[in-house]
Amino acid sequence: xxxxxxxxxxxxxxWKSLDKEVQIAVTPYLSSKYSLSTVDNSRKHFVSDPNxxxxxxxxxxxSSLCVALKNRGNFGKLFTEIKQAIKxxxxxxxxxxxxxxxxxxxxFGDEGESEEVVWLKSELLGALASERSSxxxxxxxxxxxxxxxxxxxxxxxxxxxxxxxxxxxxAMLIELQSESLVPPK
Length: 185
Prior knowledge:
By secondary structure, the protein is mainly alpha-helical. The chain is built from nine helices and no strands. The chain has helices at about 10-15, 20-25, 55-70, 75-90, 90-110, 115-125, 135-150, 155, 170-180. Mean pLDDT is about 75; it is low at about 40-45 and about 160-165.
């Protein structure tokens, strides 16, 4: 073709290595006016589809929180492992969702109205207009209970408690979440 003269030596060698039939088939596309542009399809967070099943929404939300937290705080590796467990078992996603949201807000809430916090608020507010609202209200109840517990005199008197980054608060949240699953006697 006419463009082959301006091509690199490597391109010419490649072109000559092709069968005549392939060269004939490809030649009309060599002068295309279209160009390939790369598009960054990677998203920081998933954007939920309103038609997504509730169980998948919880999994995707929890997974997205794990991804956001994987390089933050002292528990990055733990969140990577949790993300793998969430893919296998939706009950795990439901169980860890309040813990992930708490840790997410502790880490990203310090940054004010960060892009991450705006995304989470948007996702949770959008869920209120669907069957997902029960998950959001349960999440808010759990977080309120934890906040109330974290501000008790008992917790405040323990040195180092109050920020999830030190590990002790996160361990207590997991313990409280486990206790909340046990039916009252």
